[in-house]
Amino acid sequence: MTKWFIIVFSCVTLQSFAQVTTDSAAFFIRDIYRQSYTEMQSYKWLTTLTKDIGPRLSGSENSAEAIKWAKATMDTFGLDSVWLQPVMVPHWVRGEKEQVLMIAEGGITITLKALALGNSPGTGKNGIQAEVIEVQSLDQLKELPDRMIQGKIVFFNRAMDLGQLSTFSAYGGAADQRTTGPIAAAERGAVAVVIRSLSTDQDDSPHTGMTRLSEEITNIPSLALSTNDAAVLSNTLKNGKVELYIRTTCEMKEDVLSFNVIGEIKGTDYPKEIILVGGHFDSWDVGEGAHDDGSGCMHSMEVLYRLVKNNYKPRRTLRCVLFINEENGLRGGTAYAEEALKNNEFYTAAIESDAGGFTPQSFGCSVGDHASLDTTLSYMSGYMELLEPYDIELKRGGGGADISGLRPVAGMLIGMRPDNARYFDYHHSDRDILENVHPRELASGAAALTSLVFLIDQYGIKG
Amino acid sequence: MTKWFIIVFSCVTLQSFAQVTTDSAAFFIRDIYRQSYTEMQSYKWLTTLTKDIGPRLSGSENSAEAIKWAKATMDTFGLDSVWLQPVMVPHWVRGEKEQVLMIAEGGITITLKALALGNSPGTGKNGIQAEVIEVQSLDQLKELPDRMIQGKIVFFNRAMDLGQLSTFSAYGGAADQRTTGPIAAAERGAVAVVIRSLSTDQDDSPHTGMTRLSEEITNIPSLALSTNDAAVLSNTLKNGKVELYIRTTCEMKEDVLSFNVIGEIKGTDYPKEIILVGGHFDSWDVGEGAHDDGSGCMHSMEVLYRLVKNNYKPRRTLRCVLFINEENGLRGGTAYAEEALKNNEFYTAAIESDAGGFTPQSFGCSVGDHASLDTTLSYMSGYMELLEPYDIELKRGGGGADISGLRPVAGMLIGMRPDNARYFDYHHSDRDILENVHPRELASGAAALTSLVFLIDQYGIKG
């Protein structure tokens, strides 16, 4: 009875005063967690997004349908406004299923599981066949004489270093093979590139992801092999010459009109100070983009949904932004930042959730161009202790790709850091599906983000 | 090159001096994590334990085989001693597959998925049939008149409260239905009890677990229904009278000789101060006891394995203890504590891992009878910051069932707290299998425990 009374009292307080006491804030956060865990709103939306709509590569019909659905869904929240921000996005298509045949000495031929890398060109309908040369790194490629590379298929086979504390560090340490490996190989005369999938698991699912081309060099078909098949290829190479036959029909089409989806609640006290929470709404075309980044988008929608549902009147302006085209262009984030800068907007905090729908461990923080991280974190520590019962804290370093352009006009840039043990088992592969998202873990992320947005809205980032 | 030099230097330091600098300790912990993540030793052992041996209910042949395997495995570590501590354990057997038929009005009969509760008696070969009465709590049962209970099957149907921050709290809030519900119902004249499984998921797998009987009342067949079938039964009851036919042949047999498995490294500086790390080696007879508590046992074995492998000479005596019979008797923990008290042993810390093989979040701490938690945590905070990069901290409150008897002779009692979102999806059900343990999450637990044991060994728990 006593407890019930206090909670009601705290809710009254929240609605009656602009800034609430930390006692009331603690009860409000507890309510947010309870509601997130019992309603599972993010998980319900994610089910629709993944099972009724599916993967959402920029420029695809699915992505257009998803944008329409998200706007319609946000329209029901009772926000002050929901709008679409137009963005021209690249439209890369995978085409027919990739064919990769490994032809070993003696003519033994085995099919390897592979996915073309995003933005990479196709081989043409006849495919290409060439000898394979394996390297572990771009440095090793540099040291090879031209004759060993020209006309060959370069195979980048360095595994992610699982000894790293974070799988994101392990990914960062291996990703150059995918992002710049193909063009580096092409510059030396290679005809195609295959890489070992950037994955923390040893399995049969290849992991795609963007590769960078240049204006000069665009004709380098590039694919990722499953980690199992990368091992097969590497082992076969130990016994002699190996050729690959590769056939892909992927291509980059004309740019397509697409949109960022934006929902907003105007602030009562400081309407010109914006707190942004977002994720990216595009995904790769395999799997369902459930963790990457359906989870972050549903998290961000739930922040505004939950606060409105609790009749919360924010002091600052709150925005949920679902950015388009993070995966293969960052056009959504770029367009958003350009307009924000043009309009002289100010972001108290820009927060991104793009590390999966797992149990959150911390928020990684950096500051905008005109702020000090020490001063900011020191001030915030005064209220961040309210998140201690939830095992959430602020850590140094972080942000997100889509919000990175806001640095000149932002107080803080924050990236949510969930447990990362499983993320790269699924990332960019056909395993990034709803079945690999746990409802309660997803709800923890939504609750943590909502609580953080609430606290920053209440108490700001400086004294 | 520089980094490599420092690591070698730090290892030298570790071997040459009894107490190491915190700089060296930081490097040593980083090495422990790297080795745990890349070697996956706990996961390899857990694969043998779950797939080659299987579930390990006290008194079963499997449990004897597991004990033999664990001793043989620890014998290879190069410890100072490995021994078996004899314990008489209860020997409950499930018998034939449970039969539960729901007979609704009009004679419609549906089979419900159920598991007998541990230690509960069977119905006899003919089974029993009676009308069902649903209650939500023991309090509600108390308020009912005798005539509504006598001769009936009482159905406890209160769900775990998912709004709780920890699923362990949710479990704690619902578990009385299983532990004391049956006997409370029997005391009022009920002929059997069924409960809604204590589960965080809505599915078809019933969750077993121990129920308590008394000397007076032993004849109350008790089962858990899957959460789906509990919903079916409850919905059917809304439309009129329902009878259940229940047939179980479980029974409690004669006690069996079993063992705790203990491995030890003698301390160099303070051999009489013991740091214990352990889990319970018995499991329920469904599933594979992978999370509960194969994970904690493999964690504990890896602590000693890893330290010996790094030529670490502990200052205090380190013990790994695999306790038998936590699930349905606690005889292993009780026998261990009795001997420890008899021998006037002293435990600097007794640490238990019995909350699953998920990513650890914190260590829950309490103190023994003669210590102050404030003073101890304050002292330890001086070195616990070395675990900050690993997102691990000490929290107030915790321990473990098996180590609880050591309170009179312990400085600290500590329970590892992993992420708990998924634990009760699997707990005590046929879903507690290796496939639901993630290798890297399991490795995180082993590394965290090893690091904690190392730090307590180095710096103690008081100044």
Summarize the structure.
With 463 residues, the first copy, chain A, is of the alpha/beta class.
What report would you give on this structure?
- 2 copies of one chain form a homodimer.
- In chain A, helix 1 packs across helix 2, helix 3 crosses helix 10 and helix 10 (290-309) crosses helix 14 (439-459).
- Chain A has 2 domains: 2-90 and 254-459, Zn peptidases (Aminopeptidase); 95-249, 3-Layer(bba) Sandwich (Glucose Oxidase, domain 1), CATH 3.50.30.
- Chain A is 35% helix and 25% strand.
- Chain A is built from 14 helices and 16 strands.
- In chain A, helix 12 (373-384) links the parallel strand 14 (360-367) and strand 15 (393-396).
- Chain A has helices at 2-16, 22-39, 41-53, 61-75, 138-143, 167-172, 176-179, 181-187, 227-237, 290-309, 331-342, 373-384, 423-426, 439-459; strands at 81-93, 99-104, 109-111, 114-116, 128-135, 153-156, 192-196, 222-225, 242-247, 251-265, 270-280, 316-323, 346-352, 360-367, 393-396, 410-418.
- The two termini of chain A are 37 Å apart.
- In chain A, the strands form 2 sheets. In chain A, strands 1-10-12-11-13-16-14-15 form an 8-stranded mixed beta sheet, with helices on both faces.
- Chain A has 463 residues and is of the alpha/beta class.
- The longest helix of chain A has 21 residues, at 439-459.
